[in-house]
Amino acid sequence: MRSLLTLITVLVVFWVSNSGMFKPLLLCLGVASIALTAWLTWRLGILGGGKRPISMVRLPRYFAWLAIQVVQSNIDVVRRVWTGRAAISPTVARVPLPALSDAGKVIYANSITLTPGTVAMDVDAPGGTLLVHALSRDGIADLESGEMARRVQGLER
């Protein structure tokens, strides 16, 4: 019960700090969304003393690293578009999917999709691969190097 109250408090503070608007309709929508989120979290059994699949302490560092990757990829995509067709070689490939929890797989696939120039298209968990479309072969090579996978695995330790 204590963790549910903590979650609700954090959600209220987060919502108010981002919204800053106190009109009745918006307040009702905020209360409804917080109540729905708290109920779903409780119903799914995410709260409690059980093991968390992802380290919340390491998450900000990962997000900072991912933000840098997004900026670098944006610059690379702009450079390739300005350079012309020769710099663009669309590629679809299967990259290794590391041993991750379900939450880790979601973070890994979404991180690939958030990075400009790459899109995670399919997760083949039994086969241990991830189908990825990239703007160039270099994007696939970056994923095959395993840096992003290692960082996501670091969130689970």
UniProtKB/TrEMBL annotation:
Origin: domain of life: Bacteria
GO cellular component, one term: plasma membrane
Keywords attached to this entry: Cell membrane, Membrane, Transmembrane, Transmembrane helix
Keyword Oxidoreductase appears in the UniProt entry: no
Disulfide bond as UniProt keyword: no
GO MF annotations, alphabetized: monoatomic cation transmembrane transporter activity
Subcellular location per the Swiss-Prot or TrEMBL entry: Cell membrane
Membership in a protein family: Belongs to the CPA3 antiporters (TC 2.A.63) subunit E family.
Protein name: Multisubunit sodium/proton antiporter MrpE subunit
Species assigned in the record: Chromatocurvus halotolerans
Source species taxonomy: Bacteria, Pseudomonadati, Pseudomonadota, Gammaproteobacteria, Cellvibrionales
